Amino acid sequence: MHYKTATAWIFAVLVLSVVLMMLYPTGLVIGLGMFLVPVLLLVQTVIVLRSSERSEKTFSDGHWYEDREKQS
């Protein structure tokens, strides 16, 4: 699975779990959320950091603002 698809699914599950914790604040839902949210955030971080996609932009130290203006 492509990392962008995986991160989109993880984001959707994170939002759903937070919404469920707000709508149904039972012990079970809060407990699952306390486990699920940090684990999914950690998984998302690992997926993004291990992705092989690199940015095509190159910003030299003194010219980053000028490089941005050329694209507009």
SSE arrangement:
Elements: H1 3-23, H2 27-50, H3 64-71
Could you characterize what this model shows?
This protein has 72 residues and is mainly alpha-helical. It has one domain. It is 74% helix and 0% strand. α1 packs antiparallel against α2 (27-50). The mean pLDDT is 82.
Q: What separation lies between the terminal Cα atoms?
A: 33 Å
User: Approximately what portion of the residues adopt beta-strand conformation?
Assistant: under 5%
Contiguous runs where pLDDT drops below 50 for at least 5 residues: none
Rg, alpha carbons: 18 Å
Mean pLDDT comes to: 82
Structural class from helices and strands?
A: mainly alpha
Summarize the main sheet: none
Number of helices: 3
- Helix residue percentage: over 70%
Write the H/E string, N to C.
HHH
Number of structurally distinct domains: 1
Oligomeric state of the chains in view: single chain
Keywords: Membrane, Transmembrane, Transmembrane helix
